[in-house]
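SEQUENCE-TO-STRUCTURE ENTRY
===========================
Question of interest: how does this chain fold, as expressed in backbone structure tokens?
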Amino acid sequence: MKSSLKIFTVFGIPIELHISFLLLMIIIYAAAFAGFISFYLAFLITLIFVTVIIHELSHSYVAKRYGVGIERIILFPIGGVSAMEEIPKDPGKELKIALAGPLTNIVIAAICFLLILVFGYTEFLKLSYIFIIALEEYNWGLFLTNFLGVNLILGIFNLLPAFPMDGGRILRAYLARNRDYVIATKTAAKIGKQFAILMALTGVVLFNLILILIAIFIYLGADQEYQAILVSSMLEGLRVKDIMTRKVETVTPDNTVNETLYKMFKKRHMGYPVIEKDKLVGIITFDDISRIPEDKRDITVKEIMSKELILAHPDEGVATVFEKINRKAVGRLPVVENDQLVGIVSKTDVVRTLEMLEKQRIGS
């Protein structure tokens, strides 16, 4: 079941809303209709999330200019997440990508400030209006001031050196100028975890659930990011051809589902490339077969195989392929060269390689 819904595409990047976010918006507007909150507040909350999308699009746009693939942007109740390929390890490029989001928020805040001056709404330029949403009045001056405050808070908050937030990435880019990238990541992740702990404690004291959730997100994100960079470092220099299985078991489109299932149990492989006239046309997995009722498993593989193929190349880096496997949530990738299937690489292959490298590291 798909957990997010695509709403539109910008710069070729799909924007999706997570189910939890949709539920949150339903609750917010239901509360507005019931009179628990004002429609103005509901509208402003909606615009806050629009600003978050703009924030993430800023990161993604700069990243795309440096050749980073952007799969999608997903909006969650606690913020937006850009699903992108590995960030360049060049400190200068990472710095620009990380700065893009917060600077966009600050620019929006500056535009709101200029509009307030131009249209003479300066009576609203008070801390009580900028940082506290007023509910008694509804006019453009109040809206611009509230929106200024929202973007200022988002911009400054994201600049906190709490890795993997933008400020933490900026810190890593600064540290990586004169030290090893893995060490820089470890240091930034450690600082990020310390910030997360302080944030969680503050959330407990203030009874602020959102702050606690953000703290958990930062803490777990910092650890996952460090582990990912560590794995990438260990796999550096390794190519798919170094670890792939060259003798590949395959099936044809005309094999029945029952025949394929029997082969899976016999060979103990849960996925097979589908070959027709020496050409890769699909892939069939145990997950595909498990969806078919037992009394209908006399149908052929071509009726249920996956035709949207995620491929690897023999000279592709193992770290890149491992990230692709995890991001796409697949167990194995066919390895293709000159339109010919030359091997297959699985998540198990990569994990086994990592275990061997770790043993070698400890042994040395």
